[in-house]
Amino acid sequence: MNILIKRSRGILTTLVFCGLAPSVSEGQAPGRVVGRVLDARTAQPLASVQVLLAEASLGSLTAVDGRYLIRDVPAGTYDLVVLSIGYATKTITQVEVASGLTTALDVTLDSRAIEVDGLTVTSAAERGSTTSLLTERKLAAVVSDAIGADQISRTPDGDAAAALKRVPGLSVVDGRYAYIRGLGERYSATTLNGAPLASPVPDKKVVPLDMIPSGLLQSIVTSKSYSPDQPGDYAGGLVQLRTWDFPASRLLDVSVSGGWNSGATFKDGLGYAGGGGDFLGFDDGTRDLPALIPRDVRISRANFSSEQLQDIGRAFGGEWGPTPRSIPATGSLSFAFGQDFDLSSDRRAGFIASASYSSSQRLRRNLVERVFTASGGQDPSVDYRGEIAERSVGLGGLLSFTFQPRQSDQVKLTGVYNRLTDDISRMLTGFNLDSNADQWNSRLQYLGQSLVNSQLDGEHLLGFLGDAKLDWRAAYTRAARYEPSTREVLYREFDGRFYWNDFIQSGSVFHQDMVDEGWSGGTSLSLPLEVRDLPATVSFGVSTDRKDRGAYTRRFRFRPRSGGVVDDSVRVLSPNELFGGDGAHIRPDGFEIQEATFRTDNYSAREVVDAAYAMLDLQPMAAVRISGGARVERTLQSVSPHDLWEIGLEPVPGAELETMDVLPAVNATISLTDDMKLRAGASRTLARPQLRELAPFSFADYAGGFLVIGNPELERTRISNFDLRWEWFAGPQAVIGVSGFYKRFAGPIEVSVLPSSELLKTWVNARGASNYGVEVELQSDLAFITEPLQNVSLSGNLTLVESDVETLGSARVYLPGTGATDLGVVSRNRPLQGQSPYVANAGLTWSGHGGASMSVLFNRFGRRIDAVGGQTTPDIFEEARSQLDAVVAWPLASGWRVKLAASRLAGSAVEFTQGGETIRSYDLGRAVSLALSWGAGR
Known about the structure:
Blueprint: H1 2-17, E1 31-39, E2 50-53, E3 58-61, E4 67-73, E5 76-83, E6 90-97, E7 102-104, E8 107-109, E9 119-122, H2 123-129, H3 132-139, E10 144-148, H4 149-152, H5 160-164, E11 170-173, E12 177-180, E13 188-192, E14 195-196, E15 217-223, E16 237-243, E17 251-261, E18 268-271, H6 306-314, E19 323-326, E20 330-342, E21 348-372, E22 380-406, E23 409-432, E24 437-462, E25 468-494, E26 497-500, E27 508-531, E28 534-560, H7 568-571, H8 575-579, E29 591-595, E30 603-621, E31 624-641, E32 655-673, E33 676-687, H9 691-694, E34 698-700, E35 707-709, E36 717-731, E37 734-746, E38 749-755, E39 759-765, E40 768-781, E41 792-806, E42 810-815, E43 819-824, E44 829-830, E45 838-847, E46 853-861, E47 864-869, E48 876-878, E49 881-891, E50 896-903, E51 909-914, E52 917-923, E53 927-937
Parallel strand pairs: 1-7, 1-8, 6-9, 13-16, 35-39, 38-47
Antiparallel strand pairs: 1-4, 2-3, 2-5, 5-6, 10-15, 11-12, 13-14, 15-16, 17-20, 17-53, 18-19, 20-21, 21-22, 21-52, 22-23, 23-24, 24-25, 25-26, 25-27, 27-28, 28-29, 28-30, 30-31, 31-32, 32-33, 33-36, 34-35, 36-37, 37-40, 38-39, 40-41, 41-44, 41-45, 42-43, 45-46, 46-49, 47-48, 48-51, 49-50, 50-53, ...
């Protein structure tokens, strides 16, 4: 059989290559034709497909990833012929190849006998209906949405989080976390090129997506229904980040941008005089723990003499409080280079390398931070006003190398590095009931987050198994969070002056170094079959994902020596004068450093997920596709608090969860017409507590604020999911969709605010919850109105969500010094924490020749619960807000491009409320950026 196929392909190739080459002008540089060939039923790439230019003696075979490349094509107009045994031949007419440029064209083939008459379509129609992301959505077995690099380039979005706001049913919280269909980030999962990522944020499941520059990404695909070949720990959606693969042509791109913010740029604000490497996003050691501090010895009089304690205290010199500065403009740089190589007739290699740097500034003026008593009264127990200045530096890098030793094999090595650092200066002033006086609070914080991911993966067609496909991957990921020397000082007002106050967190130093290391690997095998003469595929796979976390934490406080009194003339000094410089006031009649590390501050943790799945994808009828199977996941999660030094007490209990879950799924697609699909899906998934949530580690954001503490009593959430979507791909650039979904949660995990000896913010399991809603989407050019509007496109989507939570009469929590405790909770019905009742997106874009474009984009989400109240404590809400953006991109001469973007044109205020009263508010400011770039490719 293989011999017959090879002979047939050879005959077809000879027949097509007998055509005459078109006449071209002398001296013109040749162009290229590139693209992918996909199965029109499954969207899977097709290997060893003939792709030929009918008027030229040129052609190519597709590789295992479906990609083809035809080089050295004279400028002109051609018919492209695509043929493969078992598929109907397709001819695409009017394929234009310009001198020195690359023409990209993806193609789908129908699974039909070779005797069936071929299909002929125009280049414009094929390009519109088979743009790879639209094709992937149209042919996917699950409900999914996607956004690609071309769409991202028409927005002001500089990172993955900002880009995801344009996806139907998706909102972004805190500028970095994806909430899909109104569900919190714990109900989504993130993969990079198929491999899970560790998160540098201790109490979040997903990676903060603002860490990942949008320029590194080829596409972002969000799967909203589940299939067994994907990780089973999501309900809202799976965010699949895909980096660039082979360059479509030789690539060189350089970009520089500058930006202005109405609330920050050139305004007087706060600064943090840190280290010499801050502008690059690295601490140069200025903030490290002093070398005089042993790693495993408590700083106390029992272990050190008075003189030694003074030396240690003075070693914490440097800056202790914010200093005035003028806020500079924002800026960024990026660079990308790629090249592909033909090593022989059937061997090919290529690489892409890119790097990016950004520096941004934020100033939150007129910041409000308030806390209300448990009774929810009108008088706040904490009522602060102030400002926060943040300087963020982002670094990103990508290196991807792909090697195809032959058409049926591909191996890819990818390395990604992302780093985001924040210098944060904060000053708050106002009333605090604990001291029954006005207080003045300052904090300096440096936070460095980094993510490293390296991955080796391969794809192979196994001819001896009827062209079965074998995929495998091995990945290492490392996420680090470094918070060195966070310094906080508190003053109390007396008789019109502020004096340093010996109050909790005053004169404190917090240091934490947390590292997550993860290893993952997996392999899958897909076997093509025929069931009643219709195509089918059976797939099997196994995977393992392992994550180890180590958290090293130290706390210190400067306090008056026992029995000593610090003179008022000293207590009125600024933070830098009190503790900075040469430490003149760290002396026997002044301040002395003390260890303040809690027993629960340090912990080690592990998470292991071993999985196996089996899945069948078949067509019982020509217009019906069913994909179903099950995944088994065995999970072990353990958190072990440990003392840094021996104190003769029993270890603090941690947490250990071991579960085995069977996660079935079935998805059906009915082709009502060639361009109209009806999809339905049912599945069971889960959501695990995060390691930080299980750890009894605690902290307070400011004196008098909530005490945030983990809960080792948490259990996993089990979720039943039901999805239904109707889609009509109404034209080359048009899609209309209506979706409905229903989800049932058993034991949902939520953030709750509960009264105890002080207000606690912790995580608890509710009894159950339901989540249901509707999504409506429209995307189309306006050619159906009049032909001159064919370059204008309209996009919009609206998601309406309702949810209902069933609470228990009590919440199982962890209390410092007490342990596991049941606190009473008022039973009531309410929405899920983090769920917006609606999310809306709209966009109007004009695309001209040569890359010119203009876009106006709108996003709005509805009021949602930020933290659930308990007993008589009201819920905390994040109030609804809108965002209006505008972008103009224009090509200049000789490969230069300019892009002007304006963000938050309709307002930029952020507000949180509790019991109808504002507890937090600030203004993000309107922003304008101008980018200039130059690119060359062939």
